């Protein structure tokens, strides 16, 4: 009986640890579920910005692009080149929308955290911040990437896709399986850690030296935010290309 009581106590301790949270959060109740309202609000703002820019830039398309249309076509060409480079000339076209969506959402999310005065808007609990400042968002993006490259491999190779796990030798089976777990972990924590660290550094500098020094750091934050979006999109495209081609 004592062993059963000890096991029950251990499980209770695990449940208590799982309920620990860092900071305060604003929740919405959806049926029996709780969702982080801060992340949904800021994510919807980012989506609205992207849709608004797309509509404004493409509502009057011209044969010779100019103004907003010229900028949108430049961005599209950049995303197409990025996808083509990582996936290959023959297979890249169906994946341009996915890679482009990842890049643009992360890019605008990161910049919104540096440029928007989110903290001006008061909530009952917690505060607004960039969507990528929340680990749930980055994990979701990383899992979408994992689903995408599994789908790409299975769609092209069928069940023979799983043969890669025993190449070049079956001895490497555990390591090859572990690799597929580390990919989303690496993607999510790299993005989350860099964005969180950047916002913390700027917040600390503003509290200590509120005038001159934080401004260069904010510009550096904009640069690193763009680089993080590029890295995530590049790795996502590279993983998809690798799943269709085998090993690089």
Overview of this protein structure:
By secondary structure, the chain is mainly alpha-helical. The protein folds into two domains: 24-59, no CATH class; 68-245. It contains seven helices and two strands. The protein has helices spanning 2-18, 37-58, 68-87, 96-115, 135-157, 173-208, 214-245; strands at 27-30, 33-36. It has a two-stranded antiparallel sheet with strand order 1-2. Strand 1 (27-30) and strand 2 form a beta hairpin. This is ATP synthase subunit a, chloroplastic. Belongs to the ATPase A chain family.
- The backbone outline, from C-alpha atoms, is globular
DSSP strand (E) fraction? under 5%
User: Biggest β-sheet, characterized?
Assistant: 2 strands, antiparallel
* Radius of gyration, in angstroms, nearest whole number: 22 Å
- Cα distance spanning the termini: 56 Å
The ordered string of helix (H) and strand (E) elements is HEEHHHHHH
Q: Please, how many domains?
A: 2
- Catalogue the unreliable spans: 13-22
Secondary-structure class: mainly alpha
The tally of beta strands, per DSSP, is: 2
State the share of residues found in helices, binned by percent: 55-70%
Tally of separate helices = 7
State mean pLDDT (0 to 100 scale).
80
> Strand order of the main beta sheet, please?
1-2
